[in-house]
Structures are given as C-alpha cells and as structure tokens.
C-alpha cells in the first residue's frame, strides 16, 4: 500500500507571524515526510475550488478575504494515516478552545475577527487531499 498524502497550508496569519518554520517542524518531527513546498498567493478561483463545500455559508466571503490577505505556505506531507495525523496535530477548528499541545491550541486565539484565524489547513479525506494538492501544486 502506498503512503497517504495530505495538503497542509500555513494560512496568512501563520506566515505573517513568522510561525511557518515552527509549524512545518512539528509535522516533520511527528515523522511525516515533506515532499513538496511552496510560498504562494491565493486567488479567488483557487479558493473557490479549495473551499467548494463552504461556498454560500456566512463565513465564506470573510474567509476568502482572509486567505487573500497575504502569502500562504503550501506543503504536501506523506506517511501512513497522515491526513488524520495532521488534523490531530492541528487541533480543533476554533483556536481559542483547541487543545493545548496542538498547533491551533498553542499558537492561536480569537483576534476579534469574524473568521477564525486558525493558522493551518489540513485535508480531511483522501479525495479532498488529491483535489487540493491539484489546486495548489498544478
Ligand atoms: P477545518 O479548517 O478545521 O477543516 P472547516 O473545513 O469546517 O474547518 O472550515 C474551513 C475554515 O473556515 C476554518 O478553518 C475556519 C473557517 N470557519 C469554519 N467554520 C467557521 C465559522 N463557524 N465561523 C467562522 N469561520 C469558520
Ligand atoms: Mg476543512
């Protein structure tokens, strides 16, 4: 069986706060292998494809604005059960209450904006990983 791959994004808040290296280091330290890495600027088109399941939700437009607000680090990591493993490292969506020890729990909090500035994205299934890697590394 070939190892799973996942897309990890360090969102604009993580990059602007200088946390990209720390975040990637945690994923590497867990034992996953970095196989692709890029500093990218999002576009509305990329975000619409990436967040297709959220289009039309109240937080969608602020989320897009946030993701357009600065550079993003896109990475592909590989390893057995890396999709689940990275989401466990990332912690719960809301950074204020994400468990300490997780990326969101240790480095994130509510900054008073409508959209959670929650530092990272991780694919949630094999299908979305494949789709998202295609969007950010085409
Ligand atoms: P996750 O990033 O944990 O997979 P998600 O896929 O449900 O979470 O949502 C994508 C992003 O959208 C999330 O990282 C932050 C934002 N978001 C989700 N739910 C939200 C809400 N209720 N209010 C504001 N932003 C939200
Ligand atoms: Mg998600």
Automatic annotation (TrEMBL):
<keyword id="KW-0479">Metal-binding</keyword>
<dbReference type="GO" id="GO:0006183">
    <property type="term" value="P:GTP biosynthetic process"/>
</dbReference>
<dbReference type="InterPro" id="IPR036850">
    <property type="entry name" value="NDK-like_dom_sf"/>
</dbReference>
<dbReference type="GO" id="GO:0005737">
    <property type="term" value="C:cytoplasm"/>
</dbReference>
<dbReference type="InterPro" id="IPR023005">
    <property type="entry name" value="Nucleoside_diP_kinase_AS"/>
</dbReference>
<feature type="binding site">
    <location>
        <position position="59"/>
    </location>
    <ligand>
        <name>ATP</name>
    </ligand>
</feature>
<keyword id="KW-0460">Magnesium</keyword>
<comment type="function">
    <text>Major role in the synthesis of nucleoside triphosphates other than ATP. The ATP gamma phosphate is transferred to the NDP beta phosphate via a ping-pong mechanism, using a phosphorylated active-site intermediate.</text>
</comment>
<dbReference type="InterPro" id="IPR001564">
    <property type="entry name" value="Nucleoside_diP_kinase"/>
</dbReference>
<keyword id="KW-0418">Kinase</keyword>
<keyword id="KW-0067">ATP-binding</keyword>
<dbReference type="GO" id="GO:0046872">
    <property type="term" value="F:metal ion binding"/>
</dbReference>
<keyword id="KW-0963">Cytoplasm</keyword>
<feature type="binding site">
    <location>
        <position position="104"/>
    </location>
    <ligand>
        <name>ATP</name>
    </ligand>
</feature>
<dbReference type="GO" id="GO:0006228">
    <property type="term" value="P:UTP biosynthetic process"/>
</dbReference>
<feature type="binding site">
    <location>
        <position position="11"/>
    </location>
    <ligand>
        <name>ATP</name>
    </ligand>
</feature>
<feature type="domain" description="Nucleoside diphosphate kinase-like">
    <location>
        <begin position="3"/>
        <end position="138"/>
    </location>
</feature>
<dbReference type="Pfam" id="PF00334">
    <property type="entry name" value="NDK"/>
</dbReference>
<protein>
    <recommendedName>
        <fullName>Nucleoside diphosphate kinase</fullName>
        <ecNumber>2.7.4.6</ecNumber>
    </recommendedName>
</protein>
<dbReference type="GO" id="GO:0005524">
    <property type="term" value="F:ATP binding"/>
</dbReference>
<feature type="binding site">
    <location>
        <position position="118"/>
    </location>
    <ligand>
        <name>ATP</name>
    </ligand>
</feature>
<dbReference type="InterPro" id="IPR034907">
    <property type="entry name" value="NDK-like_dom"/>
</dbReference>
<feature type="binding site">
    <location>
        <position position="93"/>
    </location>
    <ligand>
        <name>ATP</name>
    </ligand>
</feature>
<feature type="active site" description="Pros-phosphohistidine intermediate">
    <location>
        <position position="121"/>
    </location>
</feature>
<comment type="similarity">
    <text>Belongs to the NDK family.</text>
</comment>
<dbReference type="GO" id="GO:0006241">
    <property type="term" value="P:CTP biosynthetic process"/>
</dbReference>
<keyword id="KW-0808">Transferase</keyword>
<keyword id="KW-0546">Nucleotide metabolism</keyword>
<dbReference type="GO" id="GO:0004550">
    <property type="term" value="F:nucleoside diphosphate kinase activity"/>
</dbReference>
<keyword id="KW-0597">Phosphoprotein</keyword>
<feature type="binding site">
    <location>
        <position position="87"/>
    </location>
    <ligand>
        <name>ATP</name>
    </ligand>
</feature>
<comment type="subunit">
    <text>Homotetramer.</text>
</comment>
<keyword id="KW-0547">Nucleotide-binding</keyword>
């Amino acid at each position: 069986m070939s190892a799973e791959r996942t897309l990890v994004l360090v969102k604009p808040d993580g990059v602007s706060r200088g946390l990209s290296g720390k975040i990637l280091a945690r994923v590497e330290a867990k034992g996953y292998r970095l196989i692709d890495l890029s500093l990218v600027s999002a576009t509305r088109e990329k975000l619409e494809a990436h967040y297709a399941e959220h289009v039309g939700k109240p937080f969608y437009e602020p989320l897009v604005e946030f993701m357009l607000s600065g550079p993003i680090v896109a990475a592909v990591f590989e390893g057995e059960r890396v999709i689940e493993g990275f989401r466990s490292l990332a912690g719960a969506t809301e950074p204020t209450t994400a468990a300490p020890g997780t990326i969101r729990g240790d480095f994130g909090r509510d900054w008073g904006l409508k959209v959670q500035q929650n530092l990272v994205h991780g694919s949630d299934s094999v299908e979305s990983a494949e789709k998202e890697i295609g969007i950010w590394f085409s």
